[in-house]
Amino acid sequence: MVDEQKKRTELKITGMECATCAVNIEKSLGAVENVSRAEVNYGTGTATVEYESGKVSVGDLEKAIRDAGYGVVYQEAVLKVGGMVCATCVQTIQTALQEIEGVVRATVNLATEKAYVTYNPSVAGIAQMRSAIEAAGYQYLGLAEELTEEAEKAAVQRDLREKEKRFLVGFGVSIPLMLIMYLPTGIPMHFLAYAMFVIATPVFAYVAYPIFRAAALALRNRTLNMDVMYAMGTGVAYLASVLGTFEVVLTHEFMFYDTAIMLASFLILGRYLEARAKGRTSEAIRHLVGLRPKTATVVIEGREIEKPVEDLAAGDVIMVRPGERIPVDGKVVRGESYVDESMLTGEPAPVQRKAGDRLVGGTLNRNSVLEFTAEKVGRDTVLSQIIRLVEEAQGSKPPVQRIADIAVSYFIPAVLIIAFSAFILWYAVLGSTLLFALTALISVLVVACPCALGLATPTAVTVGVGRGAELGILVRNGEALELAEKVTTVLFDKTGTLTKGRPEVTDLVAYSIDEKTLLGITGAMEKNSSHPLAEAIARRAAEAGAEIAPVESFDTVEGKGVTGKVLGEEVLVGNRGLMKDRGVALPPPAEEEASRLEALAKTVVFVSIGGSLAGIIAVADALKGTAGPAIRELQRMNLNVAMITGDNQRTADAVAGQAGISRVIAEVLPEAKAKEVKRLQDEGGVVAFVGDGINDAPALAQADVGIAIGSGTDIAIESGDIVLIRDDLLDAVSAVQLSRKVMTRIRQNIFWAFAYNAALIPVGAGLLFPLTGYVFRPELAALAMAMSSVTVVSLSLTLKTYIPPAKKLVSG
User: Fold this and answer.
1) Cα separations (Å) of 167 from 86, 130, 170, 375?
2) 722: closest CA among 705, 737, 747, 704?
3) pLDDT at residue 3 above 60?
4) Which residue in the list 258, 316, 493, 728 is annotated as catalytic?
5) Active site residue 493
6) How buried is residue 615: exposed, middle or buried, by Cβ count under 10 Å (0-12/13-18/19+)?
7) CA-CA distance, 680 to 659, in Å (whole number)?
């Protein structure tokens, strides 16, 4: 926990280009007097600083960052952008946004079609961003948080319908034209050429218009994107046809009208299929957004008034009828009902909520009317925080994305060189026909596709993070995914993480009476005590339905137990010392049983009735039901598992033994846990720390991956790199398994994208012709290009149905 005299603040930083920058900023902040800790997360671009509140100001911290050569961000916006088709579109929009004065960072996610902009609001604004996006040739659809789901869906459907009309018209005309070219018609060629010119020209203009418009805007912005290459490919085919029609330089042999239209049609079809597939990658976030009701019933002086949810304020009294969703977070003031929280926690059974209990926005009221006071509204609700976290994670880039980014920056110039080199080689050097050389040129321009590279990582991250949210696993960013996959050691905190965090009765041994009577008499005694062990026994007696008789002459013996009379008999409940003081003999079997239980780190309570031992009750902070299965699954995955605790070594060893953990770090003060994590890292391990997210904050921050385990809807969203909504240790295992799956899919996508281009660009250039006589038709090249992007997106979409093996294990 942060010392009360210290303050902790988080600053957004701009200008970081690599991990070394983070180290430099940490050094600069650490050099400021009275700064006790500075940690910079390159993945999220944030600096977390602890400092003496009365001696250091935020201005001092900002100055230190600027002196190190970096800047501090003041505001962020998420913009929806339409019209992106490939990785170079991403770079074009990023460049256009970053050229705005006051914009310090812009990141564009092709899969979610969002631009994440960090800017200084005193210099730049949303209006300039909109102008920059539109000037670059793309559609500004609005701020993501203001764009309703219906409006977004309508915009997507309009775009899909437009694409569908274009490719249907294109294929409807190009296929008959192709048949006319290859079937004997008896029509003179010169007449046929003019007829095809008249028919094809307006169709080509209609189908290829989006490609040529985007290419023109890209060239105007001095960038090369895929539309430039596609415009060149289809344009060369059409222009050659026109020249051949009028026999200017070329002859009637160069009739590519059907090819030009079919090329454009395949390109539009590919984008149509890709857009449909990409739309499915964000279904998880749309489901979460859909949980928020649009209106709420507010009770004002006994009157019910319906208000938009965005107009609610903390303190409003809200009524929720059966079947309605709870609009915001709050506390029940009247009524009792069962609430379905499965959409957030995954727990299928509805939870009973009554006066004093907390409610979470987005959950479903089942069977009765509830009135509650709103406590957190708008961006502060748990659901809003989850949505924001998932959106930010989907917009982040894991370090592996840098490979694709570097490749894309060199891709188009390299393809243009290959295309024109192939043309010159075949025509000028090898003496092939102009027709063949043009076919090779067009095929290379059309088959090359960096789109698959640009989609490889963001689609997998978007679907994987969304799937995690559906499973109750919130991943903060792409870097956390990549690090979680590399984890070698998982370190569990004991109390409240591996164990339930409160004492429970684990064993009952009755000698002269039955167990229920033993519980009833002991529970009667212990309900008069406030000791945690006494509360555990009284709670167990109540749960068992044991009859609890009145107690007389109750007294507490400091450090030993309690005494009293139940039904006229003297009853003693306590430790060995109390039994010895009162002359109660402990038979050898009882001593052996007590020693056995104590060896398992359990506290033994002896119960004497009428001067003789009646039974033994063992109390312990019991392991959670999922602890054992979770540890075994991690060990099956060849991960090292360790436990850390402040308990003594004997108790720690006993608990670890029950859980199946061999490495134990005991007698560690809470503030020293982070040092133990650092020691494991120094040994060469990539460490994941699993803790409760509140008491373990320093250790979670120090770990390579901090996994904060929650307790249903009461979660600390900001507490870890990965936040688990449920109090289920198997979810920690699932988080690692999900990370491995997503990173495997990313690598498969990147491999496929590289392999596709490496294989088909040479084929398009005519590599197979000398060996097999095969010429790669431009139409097939366009079809292959379209399928490459669709394949990558489809591979990522398989993550939507992924179930981590740990989720299939039987709890307990």
Assistant:
1) 19, 29, 5, 53
2) 705
3) no
4) 493
5) yes
6) buried
7) 21
